[in-house]
Design goal:
Blueprint: H1 2-62, H2 65-78, H3 82-109, H4 111-117, H5 124-149, H6 154-180, H7 185-213, H8 227-265, H9 274-288, H10 290-293, H11 295-311, H12 315-342, H13 344-351, H14 356-388, H15 394-414, H16 423-446, H17 453-481, H18 489-513, H19 519-523, H20 528-534
Helix pairs in contact: 1-3, 1-5, 1-6, 1-7, 1-8, 1-9, 1-11, 1-12, 2-3, 2-5, 2-8, 2-11, 3-5, 3-8, 4-5, 5-7, 6-7, 8-9, 8-15, 9-14, 11-12, 11-14, 12-14, 12-17, 13-14, 13-18, 14-16, 15-16, 17-18
């Protein structure tokens, strides 16, 4: 019974974070889709360049250390060491304060140099507008890691939704307002990104209030280790994870520079500006980042609960948790990637009617990136599994290997005038294919119970292919019935929604018919037992 409850705790935590991610992504869509229509492809490029720089500094300061805090807190909590748990947080918060302050100052005062390095001088305003957010997110990461380590995912979920709402309300309003005042798209993009900064400030204030009003005063007789020893433990776990995640952020940043630079080198042979072409590519990147976001709550819940199971030397429970995570990702990621690929053009035209030309140009990018999305999800999950097993250094090597593939292919393909920006999504697909393939091998090698990949992935792949075929057929048939061309917005949008709906219904039927979903998976989430009984799952 105890094991069952722990498994429910893991999936219950993942469900809470998944619900928050769903809300955040819906809010994000309401933010990014109108934003793309407002600022266009060039403004989107300035926005993305600034965000890539921000994401690198953010990853260095928050990617691994919060997970280390979560893991150490979870282990201390599982063993009843309450004093040590609290001291871990008190020790770590000063580290995050220093990191956040340093990186915020670097981003603010070095904005001009960073924009020049990225071959986009007009991104200066967006970079500077994002600078304070780094400091706030560092403190947020420490507080979230501490609460997650205790198995409490609600504060993280609420703070994420609050952050997204502020970003939407302030960012979209400022972007529109600056354009109405007659400023250029670079200032409008900076206004949009200022909403991100405001959101992180509000989220940080909420978590501070939560921790102050929910202070843990439980008495405990354990004597915690020294602050220096605890800091060393945090760094030994967190730095390798940070390096593995930072490797990809560094590569993405360099990759952006290479793409813009290579496009600039062949600009005389192009019909559009390098900034506009890169902006079109980012339209597709925005959509493929949606499904991997739902992997994040699984990994955030997986690491502390798997670490707690291993601290109790319960390898069977750890293996069950990881197997559940694999099944969830296989069921969700594969159809999402196939759907984005099959309906790439129609989806983009539906979402960006005010930027019809940019959306049409981005369609071929998303067709390739949709498949890449599947491997991004697998990479995210397998990184977390390897980190849970204590092999934090392996993801560093696999990420570097994939990054080298991405950079070399971009340099060669994007620099070819006949291929140009179309080489970027191809290199992205190959990059994540290499990383996820290597990670799957190492997960198999180090798992106490070897995962059966063919059994895990075969049925979801078959169901997804059938789903993709039906979605495309539904789109095409509806378009013909409406007598509308694919560029007639109303007919195309209706046909796209019908195609998506047909794909969802067919996939749901196949998941039940092929027994891809198990009763034990549903019983581990709130109200899952009733759903399993209603669907007659075994």
């Amino acid at each position: 019974m105890a094991k069952k409850e722990k498994k429910q705790s893991f999936l219950g935590g993942a469900a809470i974070l998944a619900a928050a991610v769903a809300a955040v992504k819906i809010i994000g869509a309401v933010y990014k889709i109108p934003l793309g229509n407002i600022i266009g492809d060039e403004g989107k490029a300035h926005f993305t360049v600034a965000y890539n720089i921000y994401n690198l500094l953010l990853t260095i300061s928050t990617a691994g250390l919060p997970l280390a805090i979560s893991k150490l807190t979870s282990e201390a909590h599982a063993l009843g060491r309450e004093n040590e748990k609290r001291k871990i947080f008190r020790t770590a918060i000063w580290l995050f304060f220093a990191l956040g302050a340093c990186f915020s100052l670097l981003m603010y005062f070095g904005a001009e140099q960073l924009a020049a390095f990225m071959v986009d001088d007009l991104a200066f305003w967006s970079i500077r507008a994002l600078a304070p957010a780094v400091f706030c997110v560092c403190l947020l990461a420490c507080m979230r890691g501490y609460t997650q380590g205790q198995g409490n995912m609600k504060p993280t979920a609420i703070s994420q939704v609050l952050e997204a709402l502020c970003k939407l309300g302030f960012g979209l309003s400022l972007a529109w307002y600056f354009l109405q005042l007659g400023y250029g798209v670079e200032i409008s993009a900076a206004g949009a990104i200022l909403g991100v900064t405001i959101g992180t400030i509000m989220s940080m204030l909420f978590l501070i209030f939560y921790l102050v009003t929910h202070r843990d005063r439980q008495l405990s007789s354990d004597v915690p280790e020294s602050g220096g020893t605890l800091m060393k433990k945090v760094l030994l776990i967190g730095v390798p994870i940070t390096l593995s995640n930072s490797a990809m952020s560094i590569i993405t940043l360099i990759d952006s520079k290479i793409v813009l630079g290579r496009l600039e080198s062949i600009s005389s042979a192009l019909t559009e500006t390098p900034t506009a072409l890169y902006g079109q590519y980012t339209f597709g990147m925005d959509l493929i980042n949606l499904p991997p976001s739902f992997v994040y709550p699984v990994t955030m819940s997986l690491i502390p609960f798997a670490a707690a199971a291993m601290a109790r030397r319960d390898n069977a429970e750890a293996s069950r948790i990881i197997s559940s995570a694999f099944r969830l990702i296989a069921i969700l990621a594969i159809p999402a990637g196939v759907g984005l690929s099959v309906l790439s053009g129609p989806i983009l035209r539906m979402l960006y009617p005010a930027q019809a030309e940019a959306a049409a140009a981005a369609g071929p990018h998303l067709r390739v990136l949709g498949i890449a999305c599947i491997f991004i999800c697998l990479m995210t999950l397998t990184n977390a599994i390897l980190q849970s097993y204590g092999h934090e250094r392996i993801p560093i090597c696999t990420m570097v290997a994939g990054g080298v593939v991405k950079i070399v292919m971009n340099y060669v393909l994007v620099g070819n005038p006949d291929i140009n920006i179309h080489g970027a999504p191809i290199s992205t697909l190959c990059c994540y294919l290499v990383i996820s393939g290597l990670n799957l091998f190492f997960v198999w090698k180090y798992s106490p119970e070897k995962p059966r990949y063919l059994r895990l992935f075969a049925k979801p792949v078959v169901a997804s292919v059938v789903m993709g075929t039906m979605a495309w057929a539904g789109y095409g048939l509806t378009l013909r019935l409406l007598n509308g061309g694919e560029y007639a917005y109303g007919a195309s949008a209706v046909a796209t929604l019908v195609g998506i709906g047909a794909g969802v219904v067919v996939y749901f039927i196949l998941v039940i018919a092929l027994r891809i979903l198990r009763a034990e998976d549903l019983r581990s989430i709130p109200k899952g037992a009733k759903i399993a009984a209603m669907l007659h799952l075994k």
